[in-house]
Design a protein that fits this description.
The relative contact order is 0.08. Helices cover about 85% and strands about 0% of the residues. It is built from 1 helix and no strands. The protein has about 45 residues and is mainly alpha-helical. This is 1108_t:CDS:1. It comes from Acaulospora morrowiae.
């Protein structure tokens, strides 16, 4: 593993964190929608 200067390492990591956070929010949102639909079908 080549050693990177700290500032380069941070610059590479930040966009990845933003992408991961966005993906996690979408997954949570999708799961909540599925749960809401499931409850509507079962308790309507």
């Amino acid at each position: 593993m080549p050693m990177l200067p700290e500032n380069v390492d941070v610059d590479l990591r930040k966009p990845l964190n933003n992408v991961n956070n966005s993906a996690n929010k979408m997954l949570i949102f999708t799961a909540e929608c599925h749960i809401n639909n499931y409850q509507l079908y079962n308790f309507a």
